[in-house]
Amino acid sequence: MIPTPFALLVILAALVSSGANMPRTLMLCCLFGATAAIELPPLGGAPVTPAILLLPFLLWRALREEGLEACMRPLAYPRAGFWLLLLVVWAVLSAYFLPRLLAGQTLLFGTDRGVMNGVRLLPLQPLSTNLTQSAYALAALGAFAALGALLQPADRLARFRDAVLLLASLNVAAALLNLAELHLGLPSLLEYVRNAGYAILVGGEIGGLQRISGTFAETSGWSAFTLPLLAFSFCLWRAGVRPRYSGTIALLTLVLLLLSTSSTAYATLGAYAGLVAVAAAWQGLTRRESLRLGIGSWLLWSCAVAACLLLLLMPEFADRVSDFFGITLVRKLDSLSGIERGSWNTQAWINFLDVHGIGVGLGSARASSFPLVLLSNVGVLGAALFLAFVARVLVAPADEPEDVQPITRASRHAVLAALIAVTVSGVVFDLGLAFYAFAAAAVAGQRARDSHPLHEVSHVPA
Questions:
Q1: 145 in Cβ contact with 74 (< 8 Å)
Q2: Contacts by 332-341 with C-beta closer than 8 Å and gap 24+?
Q3: pTM assigned to the model
Q4: Where are the alpha helices (DSSP H) in 185-242?
Q5: CA dist., res. 121 & res. 331, Å (int)
Q6: What is the pLDDT along the chain (462 residues), one digit of tens a residue?
Q7: Looking at 34-193, which runs of residues are DSSP E strands?
Q8: Conformational region of residue 262, where left means phi above 0, alpha means psi within -120 to 50, and beta covers everything else
Q9: Residue 415 to residue 430: CA distance in whole angstroms
Q10: Environment class of residue 209 by beta-carbon count within 10 Å: exposed (0-12), middle (13-18) or buried (19+)?
Q11: Strand, coil or helix: 285
């Protein structure tokens, strides 16, 4: 176990953070997704990220200040945490037993830190990733339970809201610094936080645009982390919650995602925008309310008109746009990376069929889409438990207090955006602690009963 200077910073932050402030500390630690606070040589140098290192302190604060009963309450039937608990138990058991019971019955794409470099095709067998992914699954369960306790009473949701907006602001700043390093030739400061031993894919150019990776190892990882922040801030802006701040952050985040050249970002933005539009139309029809065009709708309409005028006045610009999206989306599947990831998905489906839907064990097989990761690793049972967990998170309760609705709704939008992103390009079971923090905030309103207001709301029509 080799600590880095970041370990000291995390420990100091944990010691000075109260239970009310610990969720903010966790969210800020999630920004450093390619940072190693501790390196583990026995596991091939596998990193302990700042967010994972903070987790024991998070659990300690929750148990000390809220008690064991409050920490167990989010895991009680039929709450979302109950299904997450069952999923994690099954996933950890599958990680240990299935690679041994089903050894050699199928070939899979996997990796074993310290034994091989990169992802290779190998027979089903126990791997170091069975252990690391099990640890991440247990960490996710612990974080969900602890945050479920610490986000009560309701006023703490307001602190969580502000923490996410601060995180989104720092993420924007890191992306702008990344662009300054690439375009202006500034000394790279971000390379010091990318010390986790991952394959670092920084820079590169597509269609004349430099790829953005921020504090992460590659563009797709940064995009998958940033998209939920966009959904959260955009949803707050639509609800009129701190509209100048949330709207500015949402706009800057959107622009950076469009400039990122990430196919994950473009596919997720399209799918998310479509789902939001369909949901708004469905609510208007089922509630028999007339649809109203808010500021967001007028902005989109204005951008569409401006784009049409630009294409009419400058036809050559249309060719450049077509070529750019052809490279990032259409021809992406024909690239070496696209072919490789396509082969991962094909083999993951073969793994699922070879073991008759049981799964090959958590952490055994890689894919390039989270649904295939679920099916190949934890099988039908694991996928069903995950769907039950997500359903409980995304469906708003009828008795949710009005004062927390903007925050819980924004958290559900963040969870939805994250799920779309990993469906496009997720390669492992671990979704990151930020995902489970948003999930815990989304269901916090089911238990919040405090009536004091969280904010001044100036309503913005949808």
A1: yes
A2: 332/263, 341/368, 341/425
A3: 0.88
A4: 219-238
A5: 25
A6: 788 899 999 999 999 999 889 999 999 999 998 898 888 776 666 788 999 999 999 999 999 999 999 999 999 999 999 999 999 999 999 999 999 999 999 999 988 766 666 788 899 999 989 999 999 999 999 999 999 999 976 678 999 999 999 999 999 999 999 988 877 777 778 888 888 766 555 555 555 566 788 888 888 899 999 999 999 999 999 899 999 999 999 999 999 998 888 888 888 998 998 888 887 777 767 765 555 555 555 555 566 666 666 556 666 555 555 555 555 555 555 566 678 888 999 999 999 999 999 999 999 999 999 999 999 999 999 999 999 999 999 998 877 777 888 999 999 999 999 999 999 988 999 999 999 999 999 998 776 543 344 443 433 333
A7: 38-40, 46-48, 107-110, 120-123
A8: beta
A9: 14
A10: middle
A11: helix
How far apart CA 343 and CA 255 sit, in angstroms, is 32
Query: What is the dihedral sign for C-alpha 213, 216, 221, 226?
Result: negative
